[in-house]
Amino acid sequence: MQKKIIIDCDPGHDDAMAIIMAASGASHLQLDAITTVAGNVDVAKNTKNALRVCELIGLHDVPVAMGADRPLVREPLEASHVHGKSGLDGTALPQEPAKQPVDQHAVDVLIEKLMASDGAITIAAIGPLTNIALSIRKEPRIVPKIKEIALMGGGTYGNRTPAAEFNIYADAEAAKIVFESGAPITMFGLDVTHQALATSDKLEELKAIDNPVATAVADMLTFYSGAYKGKFAGAALHDPCPIAYLIDPAIVELDSVRVDVETTGEFTYGMTVVDLKGATGRKANVHFARQLNPDRFWQLFMDALRSY
User: Fold this and answer.
1) Of 120, 132, 137, 264, which one's alpha carbon is 20 to 30 angstroms from that of 175?
2) CA distances from 47 to 100, 110, 200, 217 (A)
């Protein structure tokens, strides 16, 4: 049976690659909806980017719903210095996609899909967690309907601040609601996503795949890699990591741990406090991805692109 998923995202180059990976013929995932949130750029641009990706890959039947335009409490935060002003700079995707977002707000789509389900829907949350938190607050009965939240965010160190990763820092109050909701969470933080680096040899392998989708992804990676130049051996494919896990759970090693989200610290706002040693004695609430199989990850990623 295909695994049913909803992708909540803020495209973003790595979000776009995650959608492409999830929708591929090699994934065996059933994509029920794409919901968008303010994050890498504003929510209107993120929604347009999701539609542009759908047009690239011929994803016509999956609804795209625009969601929260700002965090719960704080002012909006962007990452245009990484993804460019459009959120998907450096690509030749359709500028004015024919596909349009649905009339419903993303929160209502999430609630409707989950309440109508038999508990078989997984949420791949690869942006700030505003939509997920709002959905839980608006309709708490969705929590037992969520099979799993596979999220990209947090870690034991940060990239937006020394303590905080971007997705969590962008709306830590929302992240706190989600982490404390009781929903099953599998967390892909920087510790593991930095094990999925698009090194120069991987980029060359990608460029050798002869189809328009692979070419578009190569363009994305070429631009996106600029943000990592001089810092890492290649660009980190953060958001495809949860998708790879949903395709093949054996790709990662998980620890059952307690994770709390810091919302008041002067220097630690947005930090995910990962209790790896059980110091607090508090009940575990997260499956924490600590080790990725990079070879298997890249096999899944390349297979997805070859399937187009």
Assistant:
1) 120
2) 9, 16, 30, 18
Residue % of the chain over a pLDDT of 90: 89
Beta strands per DSSP E along the chain? 3-9, 29-36, 64-66, 121-125, 146-152, 185-188, 197-198, 235-236, 252-261, 272-275, 286-292
Q: What is the pLDDT of residues 187-207, one digit of tens each?
A: 999 999 999 999 999 999 999
Torsion angles phi and psi, residue 37, rounded to 5: -145, 155
At 1, the amino acid letter reads: M
Exposed, middle or buried by CB within 10 Å (0-12, 13-18, 19+), for 10?
A: buried
- For the chain, what are the domain ranges? 3-306
pLDDT, the chain, mean: 95
Is omega for the bond preceding 12 within 30 degrees of 0, making it cis? yes
The answer to whether residues 19 and 11 touch, using CB atoms and an 8 Å cutoff, is: yes
In this structure, which amino acid lies at residue 49? N
For the CA atoms of 235, 187, 67, 31, the dihedral, rounded to the nearest 10 degrees, stands at: 80
Using DSSP's 3-state secondary structure scheme, residue 291 falls into strand
Q: Kindly indicate the confidence band of residue 81, based on its pLDDT and cuts at 50, 70 and 90.
A: confident
Active-site residues, by number, are 238
Amino acid at 196: A
Question: Is residue 221 a contact partner of residue 206, using CB atoms and an 8 Å limit?
Answer: yes
pLDDT value at position 203? Answer: 92
pLDDT mean over 261-275: 97
Tokens of residue 236, six digits: 């980190």
| Stated pTM of the model | 0.97
Task: Summarize the confidence of residues 221-248 as an average pLDDT.
Answer: 92
Residue 52 per-residue DSSP state: H
Amino acid at 218: A
- For 37-44, what is the mean pLDDT? 96
Tallying the residues shown for the chain, one arrives at: 308
Tell the CATH topology of 3-306: Inosine-uridine Nucleoside N-ribohydrolase; Chain A (3.90.245)
